[in-house]
Design a protein that fits this description.
Elements lengths: L3 H20 L1 H29 L55 E2 H4 L7 H13 L7 H17 L15 H7 L10 E10 L5 E6 L7 E6 L4 E5 L11 E4 L6 E6 L6 E6 L3 E6 L4 E7 L4 E7 L2 E9 L3 E6 L4 E7 L5 E6 L6 E6 L3 E6 L12 E4 L4 E6 L6 E5 L3 E6 L5 E6 L14 E2 L6 E5 L3 E6 L4 E6 L10 E4 L7 E4 L4 E7 L1
Antiparallel strand pairs: 1-10, 2-29, 3-4, 4-5, 5-6, 7-8, 8-9, 9-10, 11-12, 12-13, 13-14, 15-16, 16-17, 17-18, 19-20, 20-21, 21-22, 23-24, 24-25, 25-26, 27-28, 28-29
InterPro entries: WD40/YVTN_repeat-like_dom_sf (IPR015943), WD40_repeat_CS (IPR019775), WD40_repeat_dom_sf (IPR036322), WD40_rpt (IPR001680), WD_repeat_DNA-damage-binding (IPR050853)
Keywords: DNA damage, DNA-binding, Repeat, WD repeat
GO biological process, one term: DNA damage response
């Protein structure tokens, strides 16, 4: 039974409905809602129609971006940078840097298709084949090292006029070393940089630079970040038809290493981050495909007196030995936790190998004891950051490591049991290649670049930098350095802009 309150509530609802019906409120609300919906629908249709009818402007808006943010090298038409004084060595400056990488080709690449330079490359091929016939090549053996040291001592006694080496003093004479440290820095009369010995060999940042190991020909090969391999014959005399620079593109990613075949200079091997190893065969006129992998190849080397095997590091710490004759892998191990940055062999004991890695270590190995399982190390150098190189001295008695922790490590002793650290600023940015300290023609000095566009000479006995190489012509940091294996006093420094500076003794 409904209560009194419920009856009143129902009565009020009935009376309100009658009042709303009399005023026709519901009908007007429905009409207003329909009109609003129709107006909204027409507005939406209009917007949709305008979007469909919108045309592209004749002159699109251009957003200005610098060449650096687009991944390109600066234009060569800007302010003079010191390389235009010698037109013979500057023709490649007009070669534009590639804006995109070519796809990886898993097949032999004809030299004609790989050539990107101006003019003809015939003279390069003729030079390499001529070297092959004359057999002017050689290898650094004990007698050669002894003759280099003897020549250094004799030249230093004769004076500056007949001096063909920058080494002014002997290793065991610290008094004269102190004398070199003067306010004027390094004696410019001992080693010089001439304008004709400066050239842009490749368009991009150089990762690898190597002298042709030949006594009678002064030639350099350089590999850059775009996959180019450039050759520069400094002895080229034909200025009208040939500037001595030849550019090839056998890879689609940075070139990590370049190796000249020990007994056949007409065969040049290159490795790349694209996972390919190619062999430039001058006689067959092809960049042959030697090896391919889905991993990047960060380092490549050959053991002395063993041209049939390649030793390289791929991926995160994988070390591979590849038989060129059989076309297969002999052994492979995980030697490091991260990528292997360098591989080097002891010149006096080729069975001993050194590897450096981004995992902060450098190891010594004996190839004779490396079986199917992970081999044991002979010695270890520990750094707090990535180690970018580990190279043996010419005598094979010392090992120099270069790390991102701002130290040059020296490993020495009868069993490489002695370790010392020499401070050197090795911090580089992403736009230039990491520093790698290399030995000269004996065990007296280690050459490494610095951020002041100079080359530091570090004496491992004094454990510090004792000299500097600097010249107004050197306008960029010479990140990667290589010393000519047979010409004492000749070394090359390469830069992030593709330039190569060749210092020679007077």
């Amino acid at each position: 039974m409904a209560t009194e309150y419920e009856r009143k509530r129902l009565e009020n609802i009935r009376r309100n409905d009658e009042m709303m019906a009399a005023l026709k409120v519901h009908a007007k609300a429905s009409l207003l809602s329909a009109a609003t919906a129709a107006k909204r629908s027409r507005r939406d249709d209009s917007k949709s129609f305008k979007k469909k009818q919108k045309t592209k402007p004749e002159t699109p808006t251009v957003i200005r971006k610098s060449l650096r943010t687009r991944g390109l090298n600066p234009d060569s038409g800007g302010l003079p940078d010191g390389f235009s004084d010698n037109p013979k060595r500057t023709r490649i400056q007009n070669t534009p840097s590639p804006q995109k990488q070519s796809p990886r080709l898993l097949a032999p690449l004809p030299i004609d298709s790989a050539y990107e330079g101006e003019g003809s490359y015939t003279q390069l091929l003729d030079t390499l084949l001529c070297i092959e016939k004359k057999s002017c090549r050689g290898s650094l053996i004990k007698e050669e090292i002894g003759s280099v040291k003897k020549s250094n001592r004799n030249l230093s006694k004769k004076g500056k006029k007949s001096n063909r080496s920058y080494v002014k003093e002997e290793f065991d004479n610290p008094v004269k070393l102190e004398k070199i440290e003067s306010e004027d820095g390094f004696d410019q009369d001992l080693l010089s940089l001439e304008p004709q010995n400066v050239a842009r060999v490749v368009p991009g940042r150089i990762f690898a630079v190597k002298f042709l190991p030949c006594e009678n020909v002064k030639m350099i090969a350089a590999g850059d970040k775009f996959g180019n391999v450039g050759f520069w014959n400094l002895d080229c005399e034909n200025e009208e038809d040939d500037d001595g620079i030849y550019l090839f593109t056998p890879h689609s990613a940075p070139v990590s290493s370049i190796v000249f075949q020990q007994n056949s200079f007409s065969r040049v091997i290159s490795s790349s981050y694209d996972g390919l190893i190619r062999l430039m065969d001058v006689e067959k006129l092809v960049f042959d495909l030697v090896y391919s992998t889905d991993e990047a190849i960060f380092s490549l080397s050959q053991r002395p007196s063993d041209e049939q095997c390649l030793y390289f590091g791929e991926g995160d710490g994988m070390f591979n030995i590849w038989d060129l004759r059989a076309g297969k892998s002999n052994f492979h191990w995980d030697l490091h936790e991260r990528r292997i940055n360098s591989i080097d062999f002891n010149p006096q004991n080729p069975h001993v190998m050194a590897t450096s890695s981004t995992d902060g270590t450098a190891y010594l190995w004996d190839l004779r004891s490396m079986g199917a399982n992970k081999p044991k190390t002979l010695a270890t150098v520990n750094h707090s950051k990535a180690v970018h190189s580990a190279y043996f001295s010419p005598s094979g008695l010392s090992l120099a490591t270069t790390s991102y922790d701002n130290y040059i490590g020296i490993l020495s002793g009868a069993n490489f049991e002695d370790t010392c650290m020499i401070y050197h600023n090795n911090i580089t940015n992403r736009w230039i290649s990491t520093f790698r300290g290399v030995w000269g023609w004996d065990d007296s000095y280690i050459y490494v670049a610095n951020l002041s566009k100079k080359i530091d000479l570090i004496n491992p006995k004094l454990k510090r930098t004792v000299m500097e190489l600097h010249d107004p012509l050197m306008k960029a940091i010479p990140c990667r350095i290589h010393c000519h294996p047979f010409t004492v006093g000749t070394l090359a420094g390469s830069t992030a802009g593709g330039q190569v500076y060749v210092w020679t003794a007077r």
